[in-house]
Amino acid sequence: MPRRPSLTPPQLASAALDVVDRDGLAGLTMRAVATQLGVSTMGLYRYVKDRDELEALVVETVLGEIDTDPPAPAQGASWQDQLTVMARRLRDAVGTHPSTVPLALTRRYRSQAIMRWSETVLAILATAGIHGEQRVIALRALLAYAIGAIQLEHLGGPSGLDALAAAPGTPAAGDFPLLAESGPVANAITRDAEFHGGLAVLLRGLAR
Amino acid sequence: MPRRPSLTPPQLASAALDVVDRDGLAGLTMRAVATQLGVSTMGLYRYVKDRDELEALVVETVLGEIDTDPPAPAQGASWQDQLTVMARRLRDAVGTHPSTVPLALTRRYRSQAIMRWSETVLAILATAGIHGEQRVIALRALLAYAIGAIQLEHLGGPSGLDALAAAPGTPAAGDFPLLAESGPVANAITRDAEFHGGLAVLLRGLAR
DNA sequence: CTGGTAGGCGTAGCTTGTACGCCTACAGGT
DNA sequence: ACCTGTAGGCGTACAAGCTACGCCTACCAG
């Protein structure tokens, strides 16, 4: 029992997040995090087994910021409104650390935070009268949409709309008339409106 | 004009894909691909500028396998049916090379293949009477759902359902009663049914 | 005061990407 | 037929990254 560890997991996590937010995902190296903490490179290995474990810590920290309490079912908030709140919370948490998007959504960490989120979403779906298989499908559809939409948003997405919205006309726009026509339209929609618009479509489908 | 290049882009792409399919994404190194091609490591650099460019080539090849012709609007195929076909084609193409999932969906390559796919989807949406802003939102929602669902499917997804479905009871299942209850249900649903189920919800939402 | 345990870290090896520069095969002019 | 310039092909070498290993030392218990 000699000596207490001088670094706590929260310290680790926050140092790693600092590095990522400052230098991007590529800057997340063992050395960089160690330096940020003021210890030697190998000193880090006292606290994490792996680079992988370090990344898991980052992801867990980002997702841990999600508020997973059921949204106050106060006044006339429909279950659709509640699900919208949950989706937005997920999006906001990840959006606060955009560099971690590939990490957070690609890795299949058994994240406690996502389990809490899922539990709350399931509860809301239950109040909507959705049960059994349909509820599982609804949960996964919501998660899939959220993951995909966040990714499109932060990675530019391979949608082609961005390309044409950014540089209309220039490329072989003639081959894609509808895409070319949609470019300016897409440009005029805010990220928020897009996210909520798609979500609304999904929620409308859930209501019988 | 002396000498013709001895390696063609398709050869490059197929060698890289072979490596990925065999050794996984981590096995995709310049050396490995060069060896697969029977050239020296540096010989590769005659054909690609970068490791990045090599990855782009892989992605483009995988997505290039998507059939983007409009589905035969033969008999009584509704626009919903047609969109389902398009979504399934995207899922199938990526699913053929599961290791490339993080690559294909994470990178924001201005993929020609995805542009063709988007164009066809826009056309189908147009026949459904969806135009302007709503059509852009619908396209992105479909793409977001597809990307997210494919990712959940192939990366195990951080949904928590997998964990509880695989090892029911063991973890602190008491903290997540609904999740625990849903585990077995989720287990009984095939990947196909899940993908189509979620998609159906989305399509139902698109129909007024 | 002392001994053992566990934290802390320096060294070094392996893997990876890639800059650089030499060698050589080939087409075309003489 | 020969020479020459261009571009393909590749070997060497280095930087950066992860991490196995093992020494040193601070600390707590007795």
TrEMBL record, chains A, B:
GO annotation terms (biological process): negative regulation of DNA-templated transcription; response to antibiotic
Domain of life: Bacteria
Keyword Transcription regulation applies: yes
Record-annotated DNA-binding residue ranges: 29-48
Key words, A-Z: DNA-binding, Repressor, Transcription, Transcription regulation
Domain HTH tetR-type: 6-66
Pfam families in the record: TetR_C_1 (PF02909), TetR_N (PF00440)
InterPro entries: Homeodomain-like_sf, HTH-type_TetR-like_transc_reg, HTH_TetR, Repressor_TetR_C, Tet_transcr_reg_TetR, Tet_transcr_reg_TetR-rel_C_sf
GO MF: DNA-binding transcription factor activity; transcription cis-regulatory region binding
Keyword set includes Transcription regulation: yes
PANTHER family associated with the record: HTH-TYPE TRANSCRIPTIONAL REGULATOR RUTR (PTHR30055), TRANSCRIPTIONAL REGULATORY PROTEIN (PTHR30055:SF151)
Protein name: TetR/AcrR family transcriptional regulator C-terminal domain-containing protein
Organism: Frankia nepalensis
Organism ancestry: Bacteria, Bacillati, Actinomycetota, Actinomycetes, Frankiales
